[in-house]
């Protein structure tokens, strides 16, 4: 029967879809080319508008920010930098509207040159304020120089007064009067110092209001200086006071500078008001220009939309037809002929993995999926045949074991009867031979028991229950009570697990029995423990025996494998093989660790994965599990 390839049919559908898609793409490409040409024309018309929308608000904001920076500038270098920036912004605006048909824009940027006058007014204000500050600082320095001179003169007079205490009261009164005058002059100069220092800190109006008070203070100091005794001090102080009066009240003096600063500030304010009006006008125009550009953009969009709508509608219709056809074909080929059938095959594979080998797998086609179904059916048939073979082998083992037990029992009976009937006549050699026959028969009987136990492993009823290592240890102590020299202990706090109790008990019995049987002393210690290791629970059985050499550690799990002759250690060689089989049936594994050259003892680890078969009982479940 020829195979109708599902893959070929899928490829044919793919080719059809590709050809139709290429035709649609060619059509859409032609339509897009036409729309692209139209959009190029729209772009050429709207590109200048886009630049205008983008740049003019930036220029307007830049002019406003620069005006604010010029107003707050206090350094000529900073003022020059802001002035250059303002000129650059105005130049950029003029270049942008040079080709514009907007007469208002040209006029605004032509008049905007008047904004630069603000720079001259701000420079004048800075110069006047600096001159006022320098002049005020010079007078404060003058006063600060006079104070040490007066203090030194006071100290000299006090010293001379003490030295001339014997010259009479007239001299003492004269000295005290002079000290008082000097103290009053120092007090007056201190008051003048405070007033001068306040001039630059106060608004101009409040500073000018201090002029009468300052005039009185300086005049009072001048009068006190004039009353000083004639001499170098009087001449020097008088000259300094006259210079102070000239610097404060004369032409180009402090108060004259204050008036100039106020005049410069008023001029700056007028220029600032004009600049702000001009900046506001530029901003308003920029907003109007931006709105106009937006309107042009919208109009261009409307013109393009009509052309795009026609193409989009054609694309939508063609895409709907194409995808409807593709979906229908793919649904027929993929959903019905592939996915549904594969899901059915997966369900049948899961049933086979659970042991359901009696229901045949139907073959629903002659394509690739059908070949998979045939392969699964062949696997089912092979599994079914293997299961029947195993069952037949198990029946054979049971029958062979049963048939062999009768001759063994007969041999045992014959040996016993011979001993009873001829016990007085048997030579010693015959007694030894009968003992040897008895031992071999017992060994063969043990082998049969072990073989039956190995084949029955995994076929017993598996009942999940609480597996408590402490309880198992007590059962093991009872089982091996005839070997009192061996101590069986539990290490740590092993977790309580819910698992198959019978297989796990059998594993522990064989591991502990193996440790006792192969120990090289009459006394020993066997330690049972359990712990969690990620997603596994690990049970360990460790002894203090002679250990197992590394080259034999893989051999010990084989059938009928023993490390010592059976005449030295009686055993079937199936105990560890049974342990490995039971652990494997529970999804786990068995590991052995022993290093006889370094230390005594052997440790067996049984790893069981946590899941449906084995899980750890939480603390609140322990009471229920118990």
Task: Walk me through this protein's architecture.
Helix 4 (117-163) runs antiparallel to helix 5 (169-199), helix 4 (117-163) runs antiparallel to helix 8 and helix 4 crosses helix 9 (254-353). This protein has helices at residues 6-72, 76-96, 103-111, 117-163, 169-199, 204-209, 211-226, 232-249, 254-353, 368-422, 428-456, 469-479, 501-517, 575-585, 622-625; strands at 464-467, 486-490, 497-500, 524-533, 536-543, 589-593, 603-609, 615-616. It contains 15 helices and 8 strands. It folds into 4 domains: 17-118 and 268-319; 125-265; 376-456, Helix Hairpins; 460-625, Heat Shock Protein 90. It has a 5-stranded mixed beta sheet with strand order 2-4-5-7-6. It has a 3-stranded antiparallel beta sheet with strand order 1-3-8. The longest helix is centred in the middle third of the chain and has 100 residues, at 254-353. Helix content is 71%, strand content 7%. By secondary structure, it is an alpha+beta fold. The protein is elongated, with a radius of gyration of 58 Å.
